[in-house]
What we know:
By secondary structure, this protein is an alpha/beta fold.
Amino acid sequence: MNDRPDYEFCASHDLYGHTACPGCGEKILFRHVLDVLGPETIVVAPAGCGAVTDGVFPHSLSPVPYLHVPFGATPSAAAGVRAGLEKSGRSHVTVLAWAGDGATFDIGMGALSAIAERNENVLYVCYDNEAYMNTGMQRSSATPTGSWTTTTPASRLKEEPKKDIDAIMAAHRIPYLATASPAFLDDLKAKVKRAREIKGLRFLHLYSPCPPGWKSDPSDSIAIARMAVESNVFPLYELYDGRRLRITYRSASVPVAEYLKLQGRFRFISDEDAEKMQSEVEKNYAELMSRHEKSEISKI
């Protein structure tokens, strides 16, 4: 909470460094999200990659207060911090809930639904690396069909589809929801800025490459993130009040098979399964495009 006019917020990120794996998407995302939010921010984070890679004690890469909370308590703790700020007359401070897919899609789902229903003034960000990566690469409900994890080995690849967390959050009619990627930083920062200015529960779903869990080369993280968008596996859009949708980037519609090739976690799936994934991606994107074209904000 530094008030000095010469405070160089971005430079402080590199003061001591972090302990994340090379090519980690979460750390890229964290830096750029905080660059937009600025020093008047409090981070609330559960157990997960974001919590254990914040730096080696007694140092922290975070230039703002970073509150560590139990796995399923992030939404509740963030709401409590928000209430305390309001009571103390510091309503201008942003409360950033920063959680992975395990804490969001699974363990914290009930509490997340509660703060969404109450429309708490919290910015909730899910960095989605599609498994419990910090505890040994176990599958979560965010893990896509056909993916290898330590609990869905080659003999029993995950059969269930990835949970549609965005549809769940949209059903709560929250003021703002958006997807974003580290491969499209202008889009990411624009959405963080919009979310910062909106009151109520805002939900950002961020694509977060994980080289160890995805069995990919660390140098390919941004290429994979870009390919996820270009193949429509992870389309970029924003949604207001759960109804008005706008696609913020038109993809090149690259074949899904090209996206899969970059990640060893998909090396066990058959050509037939890859074709099914392509069909499902096309269907989902067609539905998004239809909603985009019907929305009055589609031409913004």
